[in-house]
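Give me structure tokens for this 79-residue protein.
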Amino acid sequence: MSKLLTIAIADTSVIIRNGLIILLKHLPGIRLQIIEIETADILHETLTLNKPDILFINPSLVGYFSLPSNSSTSVSFIS
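Here you go.
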């Protein structure tokens, strides 16, 4: 059985989020838990409560928050 991969998608556009979700769910042999983040306001709280393996983030959200530069977690950031 494959490992569960937790992916967070941070984007204000429901079209972008749903498109990524559809693409990710079509990847064979991967079990996914997907977390949708709709606004920059809830991004920090969501990432604190849920430790995703991968974060897809819309670059237009940059500036509304800061990511830790010396993070002890192994989250991959994709923008």
